Amino acid sequence: MASFSLALTLAGALSALQGPQPFTPRPLSPFERAKTAALLRDRYPCLGCHQLQDVGGRIGPDLTEVRSRRSPAFVYAMITDPQRMSPGTVMPLVPMPRGAAEQLASYLLQGTGPGPSEPLRRPGPATGLPEGDAGALYGRFCAACHGATGRGDGANAAYLPVRPAAHASAAEMSRRSDDALFDTIFAGGLVMNRSNLMPPYGRTLARSQIWALVRHIRSLCRCDGPAWSRENR
């Protein structure tokens, strides 16, 4: 049993060193294409940062012609494990079933041949920012949409259909508990009945980093959450 466990451990380590595996996009039916377009519009956060056919944010690369710039393996790896592909990237890992990730990659790469080739990088750290440096975390992961001072006026805000939350607004933030702020950063806007374009960072940032962001938001608004949420604390 011990030798079997050791073999599994070594196999996992070897897989990590080899990096992301090759990916071949598959043709999508008209229904699959329409479904993926709807998911990008209503559920996935991708268009909060990326532009696709003149729609979407301007933080990340334009995805309209990504097939001409990146290989299928690169596109799939960025969807399924962005930190492995580009260590330190602000792009979060959005949890989704493997089939959904394959369909999304195929949609972005539809109508392509093998595409360009580039080396697949080895695993890297999620982020080099210290957990306690909340201002730097906010500047790197939040300010592009929410603004450097939390006024909801970041450079990317103009491209979004829903105005980013104004973290500096005491009137707005005092209605949200610390737990609600944490859950929105951790799981994204969709699960909190807010904009799906707010991406989830729970698989990218440590819980301590997310709590640091919550405390930083409180410093921006100079306010606490509702009284009921502060009882017994």
Structural key phrases:
233 residues; mainly alpha; Cytochrome Bc1 Complex, Chain D, domain 2; 2 domains
Q: Could you please describe the fold and organization of this structure?
A:
The protein is mainly alpha-helical and 233 residues long. The chain has 2 domains: 17-108, Cytochrome c-like domain (Cytochrome Bc1 Complex, Chain D, domain 2), CATH 1.10.760; 134-230, Cytochrome Bc1 Complex, Chain D, domain 2, CATH 1.10.760. The chain is built from 12 helices and 2 strands, in the order ααββαααααααααα. The chain has a two-stranded antiparallel ribbon with strand order 1-2. Strand 1 and strand 2 form a beta hairpin. The longest helix has 17 residues, at 2-18. The radius of gyration is 19 Å and the shape is elongated. The model is unreliable at 1-18 (pLDDT under 50).
